[in-house]
Q: What sequence folds into this?
């Protein structure tokens, strides 16, 4: 691949995740501290991410597969998104913020699948080249997080303005990306294709069906980690817990560089099992770690993030692209986004609070969390998903790479 092309794809990933990272991490802080939203209202606004992921990825993926070049679709979505983000900073009431954030998420979340599919269309060695390019998405997330932290603007509307500016830049940059015409242009349009149901043909393959079920279930350990680890670490007295948790993204970068070598030696099934084993180990470390002599367990649990996330979710993106017919690759990536960031995250967001409450005891005004039982329960869930994959995901397929 020409270096200039690889550089453009890396920058595309970087900018796309700078936009997301600008507002995602600080959203609830802004809503509860500055706008004084209740927990329920803030949770509802945060839930627009999952709701949007269940609505537009199919439809937008179809547009890119059948009607318009992917880079033009991306440019349009980010331009519209920039305008919406600006207006988010101009409203303060719950109905307006909720409506605008839902509209914005309907524009943004299809771009995750589209940037993946555009990149994969340009690669001749997806398993060897995609992890390096995708690594720049994580670097973008880290960079904007550090920027916002250093600026000290977590409680203000500034992160939305930064995201709007990055969206404008991304919109213009998308027009310089390689021309990626719709692979299925001219094919007959049916009601099923309009709803994105064409991708369901992939579920006729039993291994992929098992993978889909496991992907939805894997959102449970992922969401529980992001939802409660920072709360837990602060509660047990870990200093600068947020700063320490960024080590997870650093490890993700390192693991991505290792992925091409792993793909050459380990089957998709083996990679998924190793990833789920890391989830189980991570929760055991969280359960028995401490802010004193056991703090090394917390560090190790955080550093396992690269293996937990990349071994399952990035491998899943590549496996989906490999299994999908050429004319359905955009739709297939939208389908995976729908299932994970949409269905999976939406279900877990509703269950997460209930789950923590189950392990909570109230005595008057005092609230006590049984964190050991909570994390061990999460670890047991990860082991159950591992067993599902080990028993039913019977395939010897590997992510295709070229020999070094």
A:
């Amino acid at each position: 691949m020409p270096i200039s092309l690889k550089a453009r794809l890396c920058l595309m990933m970087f900018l796309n995740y700078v936009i997301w990272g600008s507002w995602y991490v600080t959203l609830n802080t802004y809503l509860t501290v500055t706008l004084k939203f209740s927990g329920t209202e803030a949770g509802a606004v945060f839930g627009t991410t999952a709701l949007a992921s269940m609505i537009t990825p199919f439809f937008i993926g179809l547009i890119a597969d059948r009607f318009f070049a992917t880079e033009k679709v991306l440019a349009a979505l980010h331009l519209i998104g920039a305008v919406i983000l600006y207006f988010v900073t101009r409203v303060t009431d719950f109905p307006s913020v909720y409506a605008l954030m839902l509209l914005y998420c309907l524009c943004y979340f299809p771009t995750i699948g589209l940037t993946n599919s555009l990149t994969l269309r340009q690669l001749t060695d997806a398993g060897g080249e995609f992890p390096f390019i995708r690594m720049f998405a994580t670097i973008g997330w880290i960079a904007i997080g550090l920027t916002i932290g250093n600026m000290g603007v977590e409680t203000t509307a500034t992160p939305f303005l930064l995201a709007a500016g990055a969206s404008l830049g991304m919109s213009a940059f998308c027009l310089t990306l390689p021309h990626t015409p719709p692979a299925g242009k001219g094919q007959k349009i049916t009601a099923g294709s309009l709803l994105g149901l064409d991708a369901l043909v992939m579920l006729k393959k039993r291994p992929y069906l098992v993978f889909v079920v496991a992907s939805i279930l894997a959102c449970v350990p992922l969401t529980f980690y992001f939802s409660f680890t920072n709360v837990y670490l602060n509660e047990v007295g870990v200093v600068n817990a947020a700063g320490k948790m960024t080590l997870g993204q650093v490890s993700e970068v390192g693991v991505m560089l290792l992925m091409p070598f792993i793909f050459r030696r380990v089957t998709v099934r083996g990679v998924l099992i190793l990833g789920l084993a890391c989830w189980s180990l991570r929760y055991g470390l969280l359960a028995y770690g401490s802010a004193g002599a056991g703090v090394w367990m917390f560090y190790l649990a955080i550093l396992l993030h690269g293996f937990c996330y990349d071994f399952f979710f990035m491998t899943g993106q590549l496996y989906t692209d490999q299994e999908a017919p050429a004319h359905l690759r955009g739709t297939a990536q939208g389908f995976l986004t729908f299932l994970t960031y949409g269905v999976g995250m939406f279900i877990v967001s509703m269950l997460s609070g209930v789950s923590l409450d189950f392990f909570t005891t109230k005595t008057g005004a005092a609230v006590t969390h049984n964190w050991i039982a909570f994390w061990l329960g999460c670890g047991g869930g990860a082991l159950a998903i591992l067993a599902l994959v080990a028993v039913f995901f019977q395939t010897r397929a590997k992510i295709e790479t070229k020999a070094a």
The chain is about 75% helix and 0% strand. Residues 198-398 form a domain with the Growth Hormone; Chain: A; fold (CATH 1.20.1250.20). Residues 233 and 390 are 32 Å apart (CA to CA). The chain has two domains: 1-179, 198-398.
